[in-house]
Task: structure prediction
Amino acid sequence: MAARETSPRYRRKMLACACTALVALSLASCSSTRNHDNIKTGSVPKTTRAYDQMNATQLASASASIGKAYEANPKDRNTGLSYANILQMTGRQSQALAVMQQVAIAHPSDREVLAAYGKAQAAAGQLEQALGTIGRAQTPDRPDWRLYSAEGAVLDQLGRSAEARGRYRMALDIQPNDPTVLSNLGMSYVLSGDLRTAETYLRSASEQPTADSRVRQNLALVVGLQGRFPEAEQIARRELSPQQADANVAYLRSMLAQQNSWKQLAAKDTDTKNTN
Result:
């Protein structure tokens, strides 16, 4: 295999690592969603903490409680958004898509609902459909920065990184320094293996007052991918319980172990070419 072919393959695999971490929080990808547990409505059962701060047991309990509320009233906007969000965070992408499809049918003109539906489609692998859904939600006279960011996340998954970054910057023009958009923009640079630029944006994202712990976990991943594991571990352990931190650090170690394997494979491919 030619060396110029190895590098893109390595970058794609490295991106898969990064996006796995992002999918744990949502889209993706390369995710740009926020928790909906802060929505103030009597229809959504209240939770004591944000979803990304919950352990597996707490997430399961919250999912069951919100699921019951959704079953009682599947057309309720806020309950549907919250339930789909927690389903995505627990890896149940097909269920999240089904929930958002029903909510979108009930609220066909709601831009936030359409954006969430598009994200659910993307998380389930329906990328082109997601672009269409998000596009229908956007209006030229009142552009929504969240929709630009969501569109960027889908474009990144389609391999159209230049277009994706354009959307993120359009979102930042409307909502400067938003941590989710900055995080998405940083993770976009992982696509091309530009980890230094990715780190710059992720550090900026993590320094914003409204940044949540998931942004810092993405920063830890990118720092670790550059070989600075002690620093990455320190970042990963901030704000989390010891159990959550241990799980994240173990995941980070597994990502770096895979990265080392890919580097060895790339070196082997290059050596094979040079001896032929």
In short: The radius of gyration is 19 Å.
